[in-house]
Amino acid sequence: MDVKFQNVSLAYDNVNNILNNISFTIPEGQLTCLLGPSGCGKSTTLNLISGLLSPTDGQIFFGDQNVTKKDALARKVGMVFQNYALYPHMTVLDNICFPMKMAKVKKADRLKRGRELAALVHVETELSKKPSELSGGQQQRVAIARALAKSPSILLLDEPLSNLDARLRVEMREEIRRIQKETGVTTVFVTHDQEEAIHIADQIMVLNEGKIQQFTTPNRLYDQPNNLFVAKFIGSPIINTIPFANVRDDFKTVVPNKVFSDGTTIAIRAESIVPATDPHDHLTLLPLSGTQVQSNRFGRETSLSLNYGGQTIVADGFREQDLGRNGKPLQFALRPQGVFVFNQSGERVWPETITANVSPIKPTEVIHA
Amino acid sequence: MTKKRISQALLIIILTLGAITMLVPFIWMLSTALKTAPETVKVPPTWIPKHMQWQNFVTAWHAAPFLTYFINSLIVTTVTTIGQLFTTILAAFAFSRLNFYGKNFLFALFLSTMMVPGEMLIIPNFVTLSKFSLINTYGALIIPWLASFFAVFTLRQTFNAIPNELYYAAKLDGSSDWHFLWTMMVPLSKSAITAIGILEVIGSWNSFMWPLIVTNTAKVRTLPVGLNAFTSDAGTQFQLLMAASTFVILPMIIVYLCLQKYIIAGISKSGLKG
Questions:
Q1: How much is the ipTM here?
Q2: Is residue B193 part of a domain?
Q3: Of A1, A139, A278, B74, which is most buried, counting CB atoms within 10 Å of its CB?
Q4: How confident is the model at residue A14 (pLDDT cuts 50, 70, 90)?
Q5: What CATH fold (topology level) applies to the domain A3-223?
Q6: Structural domain of residue B183, as residue ranges?
Q7: Which residues of chain A does B174 touch, with a Cβ-Cβ cutoff of 8 Å?
Q8: What PANTHER family does its record include (chain A) (predicted)?
């Protein structure tokens, strides 16, 4: 079922706007990420979907049905909490079957379905254990199975991976993706980790200060950030930003006059900075020059710090043989993709529209933090 | 290594001294219970009686209707404890999870009642009960003790430690507040509830002052009041009093020994002493 928010606001004590008049539609059968820094309103949005919170203003629809006034139970959502919230005194099977027990499903039926769900999430050998006897990943799996037990209209996951270690996080990320595809349930996933969001989501809603910054596919978010916040939030290493005034003469022939005068910040992705000898298309006709500050190699990655326009920027498109000496001038070029100009209020003013034939940079090239 | 051993030894000595201090009254009670009347008041006192007077226990048991007292104590303690646990669980849940108008004010008000000494309540409670014609009934022994804010406070702390997500998860799964309380909160707070229960059992069983005041016939009297039978104008028969005391506290010692781990867990968890 798709989820539609119409002009939804939430304020505590009528003063603090947690969410400010937001509208969006989460498409059916897909995995949507709510992404943003802590306090941006993403968990609040999730709780509004679940019905644990009620909006101060606006309407919420599940499909055609207005659920604004309905409570959490009536909305039939399944939810996985950050700390899993498994019932500590019940076995794994009882945990999974609990929602069906509450819904008065016959014992034989619910045990059968409970076992099926356990098999789906691969915990079928742990059925008689208590949650405390399980590893973090297994607890997570049980929590997902329990959330799926009532055949929810929507599955909500609130930062489900943040209590897991790095390796397990990647594994569970794939698992959640698989389970979502297998069941086809509309899923909303809250995270503050942009890399996690990019890997798992069909589309991502970036939130900040209670407002939607951008809502689109992961690649489009990376390739065409609407504003400086999104550009900085998505991608690792963080996008380089330079005051446009310091370097705009280098781009005089590239950007229109209006951008030349209005632009305040230029943002450049680390992988878009390449050696001047790079054979591919370059953004500017002439190579740019900066000063090499430092270079480091980390396994397959080379990280180069450059001084350009009075800022130290990071480039990872260099190979060892392209590097000069620290403290010496270094010529470099920019690829046409991954360079954006933003105005005073942070909106992207250039490129205005990004045409589809610009080969998108795959997010898999993003350096894993 | 030696330093560690010395501190270990010191620790054991201190603990042993503490344990002996705690045990002395009990040993004295047992010792006196087995003495003859003259020996109980002998100076210097003897720790081990010259001739063990085992028949003291039989004499003491027959000196008063102890069977009735025992049954009364059992009824009063059971009903008080179950009733108090029930009100405690409901009140603790309300203060811990529900939002209602005046909750904080009510909580502060209840908390302030803990500062009123129990003795202050004797007269108003007595007057109230006598107006309801409840003096000399089980009601007088039970009703004033059906709620204890100390217990509510302790349990509320335990309930507060249960994560909110569990409550939300259960709500989403279709559990009502009532159902959540009894199938989640209560089983999860088993040790705290057991501790509160045991403390109440001990308190109720040993209670002396209140039953003495509100009862005036053997029919409803409890064991501790029964011990008064050995004190008269002519003096106290210490050996019989101590023999009776021994069988009065014996059930409590058994309860304590069986359940001590819960008492300790409950007290250390709540961060309060009983």
A1: 0.76
A2: yes
A3: A139
A4: low
A5: Rossmann fold (3.40.50)
A6: 61-270
A7: 73, 99, 102-103, 150
A8: MALTODEXTRIN IMPORT ATP-BINDING PROTEIN MSMX (PTHR43875), OSMOPROTECTIVE COMPOUNDS UPTAKE ATP-BINDING PROTEIN GGTA (PTHR43875:SF1)
